Backbone:
């Protein structure tokens, strides 16, 4: 790792917080940036902090990632997800820059998407990620990581997919989960570990980093529910066809063969991961 400090934006979120927890012991100083510590939309403040701290690597996790919020305020989504990314990428022109994108850049008609597959975003959130990807990948020193649903504990307690399910059950809700919409969920801890390994290997370009198991939201709920029986979890099967909002991609499962050849560990499926964890 570079002796210069490492910036991790979105350090108060799920993946950002796990990047801080899993930073290699021999890494340079990792500076976790939350919204309170540095407003990434404040151009002069960001430039000043960058010039003062001179990071040798930037891992950009911060984003407006909730699709309903992006649909409600598309100009805000573009400002946070595209404009902020572009400015950070320009500041980091001469150093490694790692940007987090999403499996939702695909329309879901095919599934098992490789990196070279054609993107076709169906939501404002996905559109902003596609645009930001293009900005980042214009620099051969930079890297884009497309990931899927991430699980695990977050500082706010509501960012991991499993945390969101538990939050709803804690409130006594009956969750209707889609049986016909598929993703490749992964523990955020492993996402972070994979990113640190790619950074150490100085890998650039585009990578898919997700779990090895294609699961519906209904299947994910069935995996999580037995682990939190004290919450009396209630769930019912449902169809994405019933969703009243914008079109949803049916199958954005990712083929992670490319990144798997570079990692020291095997990307597990979520059911395998849960089975290996204490209850």
Residues:
């Amino acid at each position: 790792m570079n002796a210069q400090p490492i910036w991790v934006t979105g350090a108060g979120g799920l993946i950002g917080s796990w990047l801080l927890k899993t930073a290699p012991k021999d890494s340079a100083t990792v500076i976790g940036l939350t919204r309170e510590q540095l407003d990434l939309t404040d151009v002069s403040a960001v430039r000043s902090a960058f010039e003062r701290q001179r990071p040798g690597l930037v891992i950009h996790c911060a984003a407006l990632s909730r699709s309903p919020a992006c649909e409600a305020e598309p100009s805000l989504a573009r400002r946070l997800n595209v404009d902020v990314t572009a400015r950070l990428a320009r500041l980091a022109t001469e150093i490694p820059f790692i940007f987090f994108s999403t499996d939702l850049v695909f329309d879901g008609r095919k599934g098992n998407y490789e990196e070279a597959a054609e993107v076709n975003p169906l939501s404002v959130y996905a559109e902003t990620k596609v645009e930001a990807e293009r900005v980042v990948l214009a620099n051969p020193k930079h890297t884009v990581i497309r990931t899927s649903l991430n699980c695990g504990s977050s500082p706010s307690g509501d960012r991991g997919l499993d945390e969101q399910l538990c939050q709803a059950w804690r409130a006594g809700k009956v969750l209707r989960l889609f049986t016909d919409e598929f993703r490749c969920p992964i523990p955020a801890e492993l996402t972070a570990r994979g990113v640190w390994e790619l950074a150490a290997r100085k890998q650039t370009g585009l990578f898919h980093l997700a779990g090895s198991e294609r699961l519906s939201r209904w299947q994910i709920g069935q995996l999580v529910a037995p682990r939190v029986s004290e919450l009396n979890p209630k769930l019912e099967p449902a169809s994405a066809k019933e969703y009243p909002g914008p079109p949803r991609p049916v199958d954005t499962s990712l083929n992670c063969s490319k990144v798997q050849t570079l990692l020291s560990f095997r990307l597990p499926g979520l059911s395998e991961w849960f089975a290996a964890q204490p209850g």
Summary: The longest strand covers residues 97-102.
